[in-house]
Design brief:
The chain is an alpha+beta fold. Helices cover 27% and strands 18% of the residues. The chain has seven helices and eight strands. The chain has a four-stranded mixed sheet with strand order 5-6-7-8. A hairpin with a 2-residue loop joins strand 3 (10-15) and strand 4. The longest helix has 18 residues, at 190-207. The protein starts with a strand and ends in a 10-residue tail after the last strand.
């Protein structure tokens, strides 16, 4: 296959119940010019366009938050049982809208992975990614930090979800490779990204056998009103439960 002057070797893959195709191109930075949206950005822009809500005044470092946790851009999948147990579950839509805008405002509405700014005139809005740490011995899934992410970096982060909703693997991986190469010390290859994605699904599969407790306690440090009992949530495994992120 030849696309845009780059040669691809296409291969089918199936991980964690998802079938798709990956390509191994001689990648070039022309990927950086690919369209940000393919007409499916409604779920990202709807909240942003609800109303110009005032950003919640979030401190540069929320108490209990580790702004360096997890490094840079990688596939970040949550276990099936805790899918959907996040800040949105314990806050109202209005509270989350304000908090999300506040978290994005503290980095000037710029993607913390690739540096791309929001462009409202082009209907390009960013999202707030919640990054968790996982202690497989104690079963604690702890909210470690918040990250402002552009649409395309978010697709790579939530790779399984992106595939289910029609994402094109080679474009998602291509964007991630460009972002990785912004670091001159990074030696990532397309084949390496493919292996990382497959490994992430294997980790997620392993974690699905654990009875997780989700710790959202850093939310209290943002100042948004939330009940203490809502910050620690048990998520028992449901038989046959399957979810993708």
């Amino acid at each position: 296959m030849n696309q845009g002057g780059a040669k691809y070797f296409m291969a089918s893959f199936r991980v964690d119940g998802i079938t798709g195709h990956m390509a191994s191109p001689n990648i070039s930075k022309e990927y950086a010019c690919l369209p940000v949206c393919r007409g499916d950005c409604t779920r990202f822009t709807k909240e942003a366009n609800m109303s110009p809500v005032k950003p919640w005044p979030v401190p540069d470092r929320v108490p209990g938050e580790d702004r360096l946790y997890g490094g840079g851009l990688y596939v970040d999948l949550v276990p099936a049982a805790t899918f959907g147990i996040n800040c949105r579950k314990v806050l109202t839509k209005y509270q989350w809208s304000r908090l999300s805008r506040g978290l994005k405002a503290r980095v000037d509405f710029t993607c913390e992975f690739c540096g791309m700014p929001e462009v409202p005139d082009r209907n390009i809005y960013h999202v707030t990614h919640e990054r968790f740490s996982y202690d497989e011995k104690t079963g604690i899934q702890r909210l470690a930090r918040f990250i402002c992410s552009c649409r395309r970096c978010d697709e790579f982060t939530h790779f399984g979800h992106a595939l289910v909703f029609g994402g094109v693997p080679e474009l998602i991986l291509g964007h991630a490779l460009v972002v990785r190469m912004l670091n001159p010390d990074d030696t990532t290859t397309m084949e390496g990204l493919e292996a990382e994605a497959v490994a992430a699904f294997e980790v997620r599969k392993r974690r699905q056998s654990i009875n997780w407790t989700v710790d959202l306690s850093i939310l209290a440090g943002t100042g948004v009103p939330v009940r203490a009992e809502d910050l620690i949530l048990a998520a028992p495994i449901e038989s046959g439960s399957v979810a993708t992120q």
